[in-house]
Amino acid sequence: MYIYFFETLLYLSFAITAGYLVLEFIPSRFKPEVHVPARMIQLAAIGIPVFSFASIVRTSVILMDFAPQISFAEVLLIVLNDYSFGRAWIMSFILGSALFMVISFNGLKHKSSKGVAAGIWACLVLVHGYASHPAALSKIWGLPAQTIHVGAVSVWLGILILVAWFRKGSWNWKAFTRWYTPLSIACMALIVIAGFVMMSIIIEVGYISSWGINYGEALLLKHLLFIPLILLAFMNGFLTKIYANGQNKRGLQSWLKAESLVALFILITTAFMGNQEPPHETESEEPVPSNLFKLLHADLNDLSLQWQWNMAGTLCMAMGLISFFLLFAAYRKNKMGLFTACTAAAVIFPFLGLLQSVS
To answer: Is the pTM of this model over 0.85?
Structure first.
């Protein structure tokens, strides 16, 4: 379980550093007044190589089962020297340390230091993409897709987190949304496009057929979580007239925090996916059904799944659709508890309904 925790912290580190760097380039009159603890930014910068090291340790522990006569330190050196993601981590450590030093010693007070820090961060995202599973399967498509996906998520989410949780002072809401809204739309478009590219690379057996294993179910859950996230981002970006153009500071900030928390659940799901075996047609072993899938389909052994309507699945999806439309009412009435319950229902009911509608 620890690997999922560290993977989530890794994505948060990318996001926090990205948000901080972007906001540093924006003049104060065009953004909310954000006060981020310097120590947190420093920890996020060094956290990128530190948290990504968890996957190196995990691989080394797994390899020790095949060579128990070799010490852990020797296996660790083999992973760092002979595996592409091990060599990538060494580069990540160098770049993360450099980013930490630039932020700590200079404080990004000059344009040149901001540019250097941004360049180092971009290289860190590229190195992360190089070490990813999509890149291992296809350097031509997997590497840029993973890099763009992580970069776009980090920029959009990082700004959101810092504004939602660390704004103290003026909002400058109109000026902020004038550039952040189109930036968010562009990031979302890149996330979707890169996501489809990675799906085409990783899921060779078909999207529906992947729902029988942990990876496919996590991917489905991630996609369903993305729907209320998009809706909430739209309402926060375009329907903020109900907050008098950002003057209702407490209400608006609460909804921005809610948006960031939904995104956090997506990061947790992504961290879980990153440590599951993707479905490949070339695998020599048959895929193992997940515990949830076995619970829903106890008599089904063949994971070559196809869509099939049934009453239970249809009812679940109908409940999810009703819950989804109730999100608008909850938002308009500023009912955070109702919105949370409807969001959970709008994700869980369709998730179970879709899993029940295959055979």
So the answer is: yes
For 145, 188, 248, the CA distances from 148, given in Å and listed in that order, are: 5, 11, 35
Question: Residues 215, 129: contact at Cβ < 8 Å?
Answer: no
- C-alpha distances out from residue 107 to 30, 50, 221, Å: 21, 21, 39
Q: Give pLDDT tens digits for 75-127.
A: 888 888 888 888 999 999 999 999 999 988 867 777 788 889 999 999 999 99
Q: How confident is the model at residue 246 (pLDDT cuts 50, 70, 90)?
A: low
Indicate the burial class of 78 (C-beta count within 10 angstroms; 0-12, 13-18, 19 or more).
middle
206: region left, alpha or beta (phi > 0 left; psi from -120 to 50 alpha): left
